[in-house]
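User: Hey, my collaborator sent me this sequence without any context and asked if I could get a structure. I don't really work with proteins. Can you help?
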Amino acid sequence: MSIEHTEIESLLKKAFKDAILHLTDTHGDQDHYSVHVISRDFVGKSRVEQHKMVFDALQGAMKKDLHALSVKTSLP
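Assistant: No problem. I've predicted the 3D structure and written it out in structure-token form, which is a compact way to encode the shape of the chain:
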């Protein structure tokens, strides 16, 4: 299975209302992505907590639809 670029964006924008997203399908196969999420929701969170927030926002897609996701997070 694979996941559409727009579906990933939708899930992340739902979780991070103010987010600026930079999402790239790194292999062109809808199975390997790189994402940079910029959000105020990360204030006071460690890098590990920020990344966990991103993975949680994807509601299990990593377990069934995504093979690989490279995550970068930062504050605006």
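In plain terms: Residues 5-15 form the longest helix (11 residues). You can pass these tokens on to your collaborator as they are.
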